[in-house]
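[09:14] KT: can someone run the structure on this one? pasting the chain below
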Amino acid sequence: MNIKVNLKQLGKRRDKISGEDFNIENKPTNVRELICEVVHTCVYCYNNRVEQKDNAAVIEADKIEKMGELGKIAFGINYGGRKADEEEAVQTALQAFEDGLFRVFLGDKELTELSENITITEDDSLTFIRLTMLSGRMYI
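[09:31] RB: done, structure tokens below
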């Protein structure tokens, strides 16, 4: 199933949302399954890049421009060569959602509970917003 995933990190200088087409294997029925499917796809793609050692790929000009608008140009090189542990990644993502470190929107509707039932269709728009914690000094 193809969905459009939008990613945004609050606190970046430019208010840009990067949108990408995303393919998930199974149709999720609740938020927990949705997060698990998205993490599964991300881990699969990451581990595939590690296996193929696709570290020296040429980046096209339009992709460089898009990354520049988001504030970071990266080649996606994995210097350690370690694969991601899917189960650990899923548990981390679920815990981060419960802790409020990111928000998920299906269309214009915010998804707030892991057990919340959803109906997702082909080409739906899904938005993940990673919240950035502020840190600093406290002056007394």
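[09:33] KT: thanks! The two ends are 54 Å apart (CA to CA).
[09:34] RB: yep, looked fine to me
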